[in-house]
């Protein structure tokens, strides 16, 4: 089998010991079952893993031989999509569908929010820009903080980094994303790009170049920028938070190592928060819930997504924290929507909101409105497709620019 992921599955080094799946925080398989399932994956046989994996890639960090079993799973996902297509319900969650869960949210935004993201479509050349990412486009009020002051934000939903395609093994679409984003940033003439999303940071630095992207600019995460601004005194804490916070990990944070995982913790501690960790954190984190939709068999079935989100929110609640902090706006969206079902869970904030509060800013109240719009879009556009037996083959995304 040809492995198309940036990190290959090292089949010659794999001892089929089952450690990766036995330690998986989602499946927690008994060791003998884990050994059988690894064998099934290697041989292309039906596997429980292909139905339950959330592609958080924790398993890559559990493997004692560094074989990258998560990449084996993603490649098998891709084979299933190629052979079977996707259930009709998945169409609404693919990022380049004409109507999808993000476009539906954007269509229902306030005039203020629409004006913000309209300004991000500016194609005037600029050497330094800030890329928002699709999830930040869907939550633009997060950027209205002094923490990001001076950043020239550019982007739109059509310039998605393709992270969802990556986790579903849709490699042909990734090649198209690589071409499209290369053309986009070349048109801007960017020499440095600050990225407001850990998933996007990973895609631009580790994944899309593997699929043919040619980026001629320096990249950094917004977390690195904010940490530097706090250290220099450029950002001043005037109203320390004095609260306990538990952090929902991005699936991609661990890919950059402990120093990256420390960034949101260091930022929140400087803002006056006390950190309490969930049982699953760091390299053994649980996905916020969206990952339960990436399996070609789940294909964004809400009956899989909702329980997965609530599981993490319950774990966060058990820490006794005053609030849940995310540094991924996608996680914030999942938890905000989850609170409609689990209203007694701790309040959820993005790191940018908590830092803004510590600097004397008052965060705008949009989470509930977003969650209701997200739920309405799913009910109107995806729920009818749950009854459909139709399948479709994912086609090409729109042509560059």
Written account of the structure:
- The protein is an alpha/beta fold and 401 residues long.
- It has a 4-stranded parallel β-sheet with strand order 6-5-7-8, sandwiched between helices.
- Helix 11 links the parallel strand 3 (192-195) and strand 4.
- The mean pLDDT is 96.
- It is built from 17 helices and 9 strands.
- It has 3 domains: 19-85, no CATH class; 88-226, no CATH class; 237-386, Rossmann fold (3-Layer(aba) Sandwich), CATH 3.40.50.
CATH architecture name of the largest domain = 3-Layer(aba) Sandwich
Helical segment tally?
A: 17
Number-wise, the strands total 9
Number of domains: 3
Strand order within the widest beta sheet: 6-5-7-8
* Average predicted local confidence, pLDDT: 96
pLDDT below 50 for ≥5 consecutive residues: which ranges? none
**What is the fold-level CATH name, i.e. the topology of the largest domain?**
Rossmann fold
Strand content: 5-15%
Q: Write down the overall geometry.
A: globular
Report the span from N to C terminus: 34 Å
Provide the gyration radius in Å.
20 Å
Topology readout:
Blueprint: H1 19-22, H2 31-43, H3 49-52, H4 58-62, H5 69-84, E1 86-87, H6 101-107, H7 111-119, E2 128-131, H8 134-137, H9 163-168, H10 171-188, E3 192-195, H11 198-207, E4 218-221, H12 222-232, E5 243-248, H13 258-270, E6 273-275, H14 302-318, E7 323-326, H15 329-341, E8 348-350, H16 351-358, H17 367-381, E9 391-392
Parallel strand pairs: 2-3, 3-4, 5-6, 5-7, 7-8
Antiparallel strand pairs: 1-9
Helix pairs in contact: 6-17, 12-13, 14-15, 15-17
């Amino acid at each position: 089998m040809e492995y198309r992921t940036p990190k290959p599955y090292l089949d010659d080094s794999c001892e089929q010991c089952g450690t990766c799946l036995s330690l998986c925080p989602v499946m927690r398989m008994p060791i003998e079952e884990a050994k059988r399932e690894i064998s099934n994956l290697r041989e292309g046989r039906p596997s429980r893993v292909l139905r339950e994996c959330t592609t958080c890639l924790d398993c890559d960090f559990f493997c004692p031989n560094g074989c990258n079993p998560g990449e084996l799973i993603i490649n098998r996902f891709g084979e299933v999509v190629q052979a079977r297509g996707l259930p009709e319900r998945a169409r609404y969650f693919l990022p380049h569908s004409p109507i999808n869960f993000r476009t539906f949210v954007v269509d229902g935004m306030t005039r203020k929010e629409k004006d913000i993201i309209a300004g991000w479509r500016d194609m005037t050349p600029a050497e330094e820009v800030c890329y928002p990412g699709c999830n930040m486009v869907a939550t633009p009020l997060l950027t209205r903080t002094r923490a990001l002051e001076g950043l020239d934000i550019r982007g739109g939903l059509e310039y998605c980094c393709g992270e969802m395609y990556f986790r579903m093994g849709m490699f042909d679409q990734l090649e198209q994303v690589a071409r499209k984003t290369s053309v986009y940033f070349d048109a801007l003439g960017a020499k440095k790009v600050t990225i407001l999303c850990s998933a996007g940071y990973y895609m631009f630095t580790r994944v899309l170049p593997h699929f043919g992207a040619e980026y001629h600019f320096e990249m950094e995460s917004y977390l690195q920028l904010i940490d530097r601004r706090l250290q220099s005194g450029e950002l001043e804490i005037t109203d320390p938070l004095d609260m306990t916070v538990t952090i929902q990990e991005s699936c991609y944070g661990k890919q950059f190592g402990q120093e990256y995982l420390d960034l949101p913790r260091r930022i929140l501690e400087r803002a006056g928060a006390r950190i309490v960790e969930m049982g699953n954190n760091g390299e053994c984190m649980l996905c916020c819930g969206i990952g339960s939709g990436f399996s070609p068999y789940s294909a964004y079935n809400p009956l899989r997504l909702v329980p997965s989100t609530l599981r993490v929110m319950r774990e966060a609640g058990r820490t006794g924290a005053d609030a849940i902090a995310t540094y991924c706006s996608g996680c914030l969206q999942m938890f905000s929507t989850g609170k409609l079902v689990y209203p007694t869970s701790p309040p959820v904030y993005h790191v940018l909101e908590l830092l803004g509060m510590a600097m004397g800013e008052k965060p705008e109240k949009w989470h509930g409105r977003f969650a209701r719009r997200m739920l309405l879009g799913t009910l109107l556009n995806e729920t009818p497709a749950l009854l459909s037996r139709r399948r479709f083959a994912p086609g090409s995304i729109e042509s560059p620019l």
